[in-house]
Design goal:
single chain; 390 residues; alpha/beta; TIM Barrel; eight-stranded parallel beta sheet; five-stranded antiparallel beta sheet; 13 strands; 40% helix
């Protein structure tokens, strides 16, 4: 939805299943419209569209795109951002590290991303910027060589070239956002600044990077790193790195007692990575690749001395702390504080809680539409309190 100060707010449709365009369009008609009826029945309604590679290719063929644009016009909807992180299947099967494939070392990732922008530019309303979020270059577990990382930077520069041509042809501002995530090439704000320094060294003096390439700032992911949002966003700003989009999201935060460790089995699913970053009493951080590894760690290996675990499991934004669990919503609220203090930092806001299907029943609403409506109400309430709606 269109808000004050040029802000746009949507929820990311990666919460719904949809690998083909038909499946994606069905969920938009069924679930997204049901949410709209409750949160913005008579106002222009923004869609944060997730398009995998198969759906994007199908949307580009025949009359699908024309039909979709007509449907949006009829229903007072618009698309301003696309989630281009998951290339393939994202629900109902093992995703784990496959979510990073293909990465930016591959031509497939470049071609897919360019296609997303080709589609997006045809959907954007006049005067609205377009963003696509993507994988944070690659996954550290793939153990890429310097040569491979150099190839990834070349592909990202080719994407910048493509965006410049699209922008020149259409007059629309377009930008790609790399989304830092635990255990990936880009995890922290410091790693992001180092990577952008390398990108700039590859093409010295090419200022287009500041317009077309930036960071998709996921509040959950940066909170997992125990980063302060004012420091992280300030660091990116001081390096002239665009904040392409902000994911409004929260991670699970716990004190790993024996009781809590046993209860966390309810979050241990076979679909997604749930990286755990442990803060020890001395202040050091220890990383676990996935929740099962953290749960299997013996106390003498450090878990008993752990002060806190932050777990990569997206929790509903309106979730309040309970006896055993807390969330990192303080990072999200700190991000809103930063936006108030620094107008113009980012105009694209997207709520992202894709874990609906694997979430324990005690934490989710009766229906996905109910959860999304509650998240909208919570988010709009917090934005109002932070002075972002007037």
């Amino acid at each position: 939805m269109k808000l004050a100060h040029g802000l746009h707010l949507a929820y990311c449709t990666n919460i719904h299943r949809g690998e083909s365009w038909d499946e994606t369009f069905h969920s938009l008609k069924q679930d997204t419209m049901a949410v709209k009826q409750q949160v913005a029945p008579d106002e222009p309604y923004a869609i944060g569209l997730r398009l995998g590679a198969a759906a994007a290719k199908q949307l580009s063929q025949g009359s699908h795109l024309r039909d979709f644009r007509h449907w949006m016009d009829q229903n007072n909807c618009y698309v301003f951002t696309i989630n281009g992180f998951p290339y393939g299947t994202f629900h109902g099967t093992r995703v784990k590290e496959d979510v990073y494939r293909p990465d930016w070392t591959s031509q497939e990732r470049l071609d897919y991303t360019n296609l997303l922008f080709d589609l997006l530019v045809e959907m954007l309303p006049e005067g609205v910027e377009g963003s696509v979020s993507t994988v944070p270059v690659s996954y550290k577990g793939f153990d890429l060589s310097d040569r491979a990382l150099g190839e990834a930077r070349k592909h990202l520069w080719k994407c910048v070239d493509h965006l410049e041509h699209l922008s020149a042809r259409t007059g629309k501002k377009l930008h790609l956002g790399l989304e830092p995530e635990p255990m990936c090439t880009l995890e922290t704000s410091k790693e992001a600044t180092r990577f952008f320094d390398q990108m700039r060294q590859d093409r010295r003096g090419d200022m287009r990077i500041e317009e077309h390439l930036g960071i998709n700032y996921d509040c959950c992911h940066l909170a997992l790193q125990y980063e302060n949002p004012h420091e992280a966003l300030g660091r990116l700003a001081s390096h002239k790195i665009k904040i392409s989009k902000i994911h409004l999201s929260s991670a699970l935060k716990v004190r790993p007692t024996n009781e809590v460790r046993q209860s966390l089995e309810a979050f241990n699913d076979a679909v997604y990575f749930h990286q755990v970053i442990e803060r020890q009493q001395g202040g050091g951080l220890h990383r676990y690749r996935d929740l099962p590894e953290a749960l299997a760690s013996a106390p003498e290996e450090g878990a008993a001395q752990a002060e806190e675990w932050r777990i990569h499991f997206h929790i509903p934004l309106h979730q309040v702390p309970v006896a055993l669990y807390d969330t990192t919503s303080d990072h999200l609220l700190g991000t809103l504080d930063y936006l108030k203090a620094h107008p113009g930092t980012c105009s694209h806001l997207e709520m992202e809680t894709y874990t609906w299907e694997v979430m324990p029943d005690t934490m989710k609403s009766r229906h996905v539409v109910d959860q999304l409506v509650e998240e909208y109400r919570w988010t709009l309430g917090q934005m109002k309190q932070h002075g972002l709606l007037n």
